[in-house]
């Protein structure tokens, strides 16, 4: 028996919004430690890794490990039927071929449940090596989304250059060149507005704007985003999900032909 | 000219 309950459906809606543009389907691997999903996008350029810890749920029970393959478009349709403040419970029997998603209004006067067919997805799991990143940038997630949106107008690619002075985003195309530089913030009142850079060595890498923009669909999950970079390895874009876990996107850099 | 690499080239299949 698997059962997981969250106090607010809005969190699950935001998580789905953060992955459904990159992935059409995904396997939710459930164990007593929580729920994990790892999947590459269709073109195998990026990888999404979602971790939701069991202790972040209002109720969590998983007697036997189960893998639930879901069509994310179908799940998004179901989540559309929930009000943001509804409780949401996911339930499945061991070896079941369906999952039940139930919404309850705060006053318990409305209860709805949706049974969704599970899929057998033959998804390949990739081992992600431990990496010492040369640069780790933390910045407001809205600022990152704004930069990705703005620079995508000028080029398909953005060059991210991180030094101890700051982080620079550059896009060059037919129009010309756009540069956006962010310096580390001094003392700020609100931690969520700060930009911090932890640099061992300077790094310059090139990435596809299209994927960076897809990652920013996770912006509503977190006020801050963390970018981890190292020469010749994928960028990690991480959004923490408060008291519940995180979503990490890995993006292969563009390389010299 | 830069080309897009695959994420598979960086991570190993489990």
Q: What layout of secondary structure does this protein have?
A:
The complex is a heterodimer of chains A (257) and B (14).
Chain A lengths: L1 E5 L2 H11 L5 E7 L2 E7 L5 E8 L5 E4 L3 E6 H9 L6 E6 L5 E7 L6 E7 L8 E2 L7 E6 H11 L5 E6 L3 E7 L4 E7 L12 E4 L3 E6 H7 L8 E6 L5 E7 L3 E7 L2 E3 L1
Antiparallel strand pairs in A: 1-5, 1-7, 2-3, 2-6, 3-4, 4-19, 7-8, 8-9, 11-15, 11-17, 12-13, 12-16, 13-14, 17-18, 18-19
Helix pairs in contact in A: 1-2
Chain B lengths: L1 E3 L7 E2 L1
How would you describe the overall organization of this protein?
The complex is a heterodimer of chains A (257) and B (14). By secondary structure, chain A is mostly beta strands. Helix content of chain A is 15%, strand content 46%. Chain A has helices spanning 9-19, 72-80, 141-151, 209-215, and strands spanning 2-6, 25-31, 34-40, 46-53, 59-62, 66-71, 87-92, 98-104, 111-117, 126-127, 135-140, 157-162, 166-172, 177-183, 196-199, 203-208, 224-229, 235-241, 245-251, 254-256. In chain A, the strands form 3 sheets. Chain A has a 9-stranded antiparallel sheet with strand order 6-2-3-4-19-18-17-11-15. In chain A, strands 5-1-7-8-9 form a 5-stranded antiparallel sheet, covered by helices on one side. In chain A, a hairpin with a 6-residue loop joins strand 8 and strand 9. In chain A, helix 1 runs antiparallel to helix 2 (72-80). The model of chain A has no long low-confidence stretch (mean pLDDT 96). Chain B is mainly beta. Chain B has strands at 2-4, 12-13. The radius of gyration of chain B is 10 Å and the shape is rod-shaped. In chain B, 7% of the residues are buried. The chains are: A mainly beta (257), B mainly beta (14). Strand 10 of chain A pairs antiparallel with strand 2 of chain B.
- The CA-CA distance between the termini of chain B, in Å, is 33 Å
* Strand-residue proportion of chain A: over 45%
Instruction: Using the CA coordinates, give the radius of gyration of chain B.
Output: 10 Å
**Which residues of chain B form runs of ≥5 with pLDDT under 50?**
none
